[in-house]
Amino acid sequence: xxxxxxxxxxxxxxxxxxxxxxxxxxxxxxxxxxxxxxxxxxxxxxxxxxxxxxxxxxxxxxxxxxxxxxxxxxxxxxxxxxxxxxxxxxxxxxxxxxxxxxxxxxxxxxxxxxxxxxxxxxxxxxxxxxxxxxxxxxxxxxxxxxxxxxxxxxxxxxxxxxxxxxxxxxxxxxxxxxxxxxxxxxxxxxxxxxxxxxxxxxxxxxxxxxxxxxxxxxxx
Length: 220
Description:
alpha/beta, DNA polymerase, domain 1, 2 domains, 6-stranded parallel sheet, 9 helices, HAD-like_sf, HAD_sf, Haloacid dehalogenase, hydrolase, HAD-SF_hydro_IA
């Protein structure tokens, strides 16, 4: 029997991509760069590269930020790089918004009498601040690699979160926008999973696939 729904945050409840684009549009000119499509795409590519290294626990969270800036051509000491990144981070946090279908999904889960928690790859302080900005500070437990010592797609992240929740894996449904991180890894840990494929990127043969969180009620 299903007892809880474990949501991803960025790209699932929160509109990370729009927030990044808004932040880059405001921040890049302050560091002498233009927020053209090529530069924005490069930012996404660089971010994923170094976040992947952080997820593998090869570097810490602050270092992945510094490496992103170095790949953008900033050759300064650590303190200066941290200061530069804070400029971007301020714009990103100010721009962060929830998706307009998030409230509907959370309401559906609540009506079904299920518990809610969040499992997110990010620093605990930053991710909890995002939820607070979205008005979801009291949503439920929030687990990050800071708490668990491991990050998605390690199935151990899901196992650790479920154990802390006091539930069994088969009683929990994982919902997220990354098929590799939120679906396959969750299933490897014994959870059920639904793929939120907002942009129709697939995989198209995924049997539990939704294009909006408003469709989640059908999987509860």
